[in-house]
Amino acid sequence: MHYYPKVIRMALIHDFGEIYAGDFTPHDEIEVNQKYQLERQSILQVLSKLNGGSEWIALWEEYEQGETIEAQFVRQLDQLEMILQASVYEHQELANLSEFFASANQKFTAPQLKAIFETLEDLRDNWNSR
């Protein structure tokens, strides 16, 4: 497990909690702790029987807490992936997601990811000005 950088391992498993719990959106009315508990049960169900499963569970917990540099970076990557998908939806004229972009803008602290976000914003401006 240690052959791959921590960020890659964390990015690979960060959504494993959704395997049995499902993928909750901001529109779902679920308390943060309830969401965490459902996803944690899912993680335990998937990983607890594996060799080294406790290390993966600990890595998922680290991501969920979001306190380490690695966890914060992966959280921003996850946000960027959602922005990319939102860009596709807007380009296909399926939705206007301006509010989503405005709220996401404040979540990027990693300079590389902020630069990608700003490029996507420029592309949006070009698409919307046509």
TrEMBL record:
Gene3D superfamilies: Hypothetical protein af1432. GO terms for molecular function: 5'-deoxynucleotidase activity; metal ion binding. The keyword Hydrolase applies. GO terms for cellular component: cytoplasm. SUPFAM superfamilies: HD-domain/PDEase-like. Residues 6-109 form the HD domain. Keywords: Hydrolase, Metal-binding. Coiled coil: none annotated. InterPro entries: HD_domain, YfbR/HDDC2. Pfam families: HD_3. This is HD domain-containing protein. It comes from Chlorogloeopsis fritschii PCC 6912.
